[in-house]
Amino acid sequence: STDTTDTTTSGTGTTTTTTEIPVDFILEDIEVESGVGYYFSHDENEFDLSKLINKLTLIGNINGEAKSFQIAASDFSTYLTPAFATPAEYFNNVAGTAYVASSLAISFNPANIQTSYMTNMTVDPIEYPTVYIGVKGDANLDGAVGLDDATKVLAYYANVGASLDASFNDDPNLEVLAYFLADVDTESTNGRDVAGENSIHLTDATAILTYYAYVGSGLDADWDAILGR
């Protein structure tokens, strides 16, 4: 990896954005700025920390002089480890839930950095990223794909077309999750993007109905096949 030269100076010393930490750096603290992510319950891809973490800063000193290093996003996984590797693992480990709307615990691994405290630090809970995980097609957030979901999508589409208020959920955060799960073809996390391509259409309701029919018939219900991908 290549060290960058983006360095700033403040009253607490210098901060450098980098992919490499000097061997004489002594770590004293960390700062994590976290974001939000939306996922499907069947997603077995590892969490991409570069999309869940906005900033990771290591704070400490070199020979007594205050230094801070902002870690490049490409190296987040070197220092941060989520409690669950994938959205599917997280969802399946929360028994009896229709969806996940919670923090994703993350541990900090100092790698080869010297520390003035412990060898393992835990990110403060308020700094954990928030993840929302649900069943694709589950517009009413009951944990299953059924006729009610297709009906809800049709009602949403009709209300938008009639310039009426349209929503899936009263909770603004769950509204985004429900929209994401209902928008089965373009998987928008905008919450509502009526004018854009990532919006609720009749095709979403049709795909949900098709999925439900496949499951009810004991057939393999594959979203990619249903969506023609």
Mean pLDDT: 87
Question: Largest sheet at a glance?
Answer: 6 strands, mixed
Distance between the termini: 36 Å
Helical content stands at 25-40%
- From the spread of the alpha carbons, the general shape counts as elongated
Order of helices and strands: EEEEHEEHEHEEEEEHHHH
The assigned structural class equals alpha/beta
Keywords:
alpha/beta; six-stranded mixed sheet; three-stranded mixed sheet; 7 helices; 26% helix
Task: Provide a brief overview of the structure.
This protein is of the alpha/beta class. The protein contains 7 helices and 12 strands.
SSE layout and pairing:
Layout: E1 6-10, E2 13-18, E3 25-34, E4 36-40, H1 49-52, E5 53-62, E6 65-71, H2 76-79, E7 80-82, H3 87-92, E8 100-103, E9 106-108, E10 114-115, E11 121-122, E12 130-134, H4 147-161, H5 172-182, H6 202-216, H7 223-226
Parallel strand pairs: 2-6, 3-10, 4-12
Antiparallel strand pairs: 1-2, 3-5, 5-6, 7-9, 8-12, 9-11
Characterise this structure.
The structure is a single chain. This protein is an alpha/beta fold and 229 residues long. 26% of the residues lie in helices and 27% in strands. The chain is built from seven helices and twelve strands. Strands 1-2-6-5-3-10 form a six-stranded mixed sheet. The longest helix has 15 residues.
